Amino acid sequence: MSSRTSDVLVIGGGIIGLATAWRAAQRGLATAVVDPEPGGGAAQVAAGMLAAVTELHYGEETLLALNLESARRYPGFAAELTELTGRDLGYRRSGTLAVALDADDRAHLRELHALQQRSGLAAEWLSGRECRRLEPMLAPGVRGGLRVDGDHQIDPRRLAAALVAACERSGVVFHRAWAERLDVAGDRAVGATTADGTGLRAEQVVLAAGSLSGRLVGVPDELLPPVRPVKGQVLRLAVPPRYAPFLSRTVRAVVRGSQVYLVPRENGELVVGATSEELGWDTTVTAGGVYELLRDAHELVPGITELPLTETRAGLRPGSPDNAPLLGPSGLPGLLLATGHYRNGVLLTPVTGDVLAHALVTGELPEEARPFTPRRFAAVPLEKLEQPA
Ligand code: GLY
């Protein structure tokens, strides 16, 4: 069995693991990532909405603060990544319009608007006519909406590719293999072993394996992160140049209780998402899922039936018990977590990379990330587990 050594080993090369590895390498840590396909994972499916304001939910005010902080960091993060790699990320500050199709939807949106206002967020109520003036392709029946210019978008596939390139340029080593187990010695995480038996040794290990994080062999049962897969089916359509601009910003709604959103990219791609299904590890694209998305999107924007349907795909969000991520020291010395980002993985990528790098260098979470310590889920106070025997 061969063995390789680094300061930091990141298990999982999705956008969260890559941002963590990039920022750690920038801090001078010799960093490696283990993943069979770096840049893959849920980012290959995600629409890339940076929707801190339009995806606000009751009871998630603490998460809102982290979401807003990450949104605030996005311009600098995207500019730095583009400057380093020469890659366009599809970062588009064109805003979001959340609309209502009937009286129930309207009441729901009014409630959301009140919550946004109480939280000090910028959102403007528009009549149906004003919504259609902004987006002429909207259905005539739209009853009103919320204009949120601060909710932007990025293309997660381009983001993932740019992060791989940034890691390579920063000296991150990629081990293109599955981490089969976490290795622990003397009550400390010391690395991971890949499927072919290679031992990857590191001073510190970051578990950033998305929905798979909850089942890595070798992590003590009581410290396994409580993440679960939440399936999302997503469609991609193409807007032919003769229809452009089909939509000028993200348009979304809740239709009969289900979220539907349409995210128009500058390159003509139109992403339509997403289902939310608690079906374990299933990533089947179903006729029912595609039907419901198209039916709801068609109610919002009838003209979509003219567009070529270019892709259907399902991904797995890493859901956590409180819908917020688990960041920082896990309770097992040498093991940190960066997982459980649920619906906000793309939005939270910049702040996650920063706070994990800070925790790797200092051993502490910075102020803005403290509410997201994995300790909040511990049955036994983790301080006790961390004390040397
Ligand atoms: N944030 C969008 C989704 O999870 O579907």
TrEMBL record:
Top-level taxon of origin: Bacteria
Pathway given in the UniProt record: Cofactor biosynthesis; thiamine diphosphate biosynthesis
Gene3D superfamilies (alphabetical): D-Amino Acid Oxidase, subunit A, domain 2 (3.30.9.10), FAD/NAD(P)-binding domain (3.50.50.60)
GO MF terms, alphabetically ordered: glycine oxidase activity
InterPro entries tied to this protein: FAD-dep_OxRdtase (IPR006076), FAD/NAD-bd_sf (IPR036188), Gly_oxidase_ThiO (IPR012727)
Location of the FAD dependent oxidoreductase domain: 7-358
Keywords: Oxidoreductase, Thiamine biosynthesis
EC code(s) of this entry: 1.4.3.19
Reactions that this protein is recorded to catalyse: glycine + O2 + H2O = glyoxylate + H2O2 + NH4(+)
Keyword presence, Oxidoreductase: yes
Keyword Oxidoreductase part of the UniProt annotation: yes
Identification of the protein by name: glycine oxidase
Organism whose genome encodes this protein: Streptomyces tricolor
Lineage, opening ranks: Bacteria, Bacillati, Actinomycetota, Actinomycetes, Kitasatosporales
